[in-house]
Amino acid sequence: MIRMFLFGAVWLSCCAGLQLHFTRRELGVLSVSSVPPSLFSKQPTSVPFPLQYLPIGNCWALKVSIADNLMNGFTFLAIVDTGSPFLTTPARSLQLTDSTRFPSSYEQYGEPSGKMEWRNANYVTLIAEQNVLFEQRHIVLGVPSNEVVKETGGIFAGLIWKDDNRPSFLQQLGFIAMHIDFGNNHLTLSRQPLLSRNDPASCTLYNLRPFGPDLYHYAVLCDVVELQFIDKDDDTLVQTLSLDRNNVKRPIVAVLDTGLTGCILSDSFQRVNGFPLPGRILGACVSIHSINGEQIRLTSCDQHWRLSSFRLPWFYDDDDHPHIIAMGNTFWQNTKSLTIDPSIGRFKVEV
After folding, report:
1. What are the structural domains, with CATH classification, of the chain?
2. What share of the chain has pLDDT > 90, as a percent?
């Protein structure tokens, strides 16, 4: 059985998963900072992490290190992915990790699928701001097959908070909320809520769980989705197809996915509404609203626009689920920050 809960697919990314060998004693050498490395003396409420922007794949990556009890290990870049729940690591981590009670599985990232081995890492270390090391023991992580890594283009630090089958990366670290500052390449993970239910600029997270198993994706109900496309009879004419929630048969739901370069549309848009998608779609604009009714428009970036449309095997019933638009980094490239707080069912985007 293949479970598909992930959208992560970073097209053209050749940098994620970059590996550096080290012994744990040498970890401080890997930092570009001149500040000597140190461990947190106690569990902090929130931890800031620097991110590295990878321009080819248009994604943001976190520096992660794993090691065994003999202090042998390596450091790699993991794409910050709000569309998956697990930390995945390069194949060489099989030599440094132990078996778990979780059997291997087949997972699907976007369209590609492949085998995943579930392993226990004795040490997982994240390099925080000020060259401080955030270290956690005995982390369950996934080691994807080479085919999955090749097709999806990267290794992921999944930030979906919950999974019904295995402990999520965030749960194992003890964090419940996150803030991604895209402009300043910065991630904050927090043990306490980062938003208030009464924040007028926040938005309500949409619950997908009634429609399928293990659907803890961060999603939001859309008011309008606009697709810009080239007229099939006149290459100089750009038109807009507007999909209004009041004029379609199902809700339109956007999934917030920083592990995806472009955009994915569920094939339900075509099946249910009975019209084909335009052949040459140039971009999209998604309109949502905050809890006080303010409209928020999220627009794709021309440079990093990629579009796929296929059946999503997530749902109990193909005839009864929302239309899905997965918003990858082509949208986040045009925003300042994203805060997600699943503990209170809210998120906030600054455009």
Report:
1. 2-190 (2.40.70.10), 203-350 (2.40.70)
2. 70
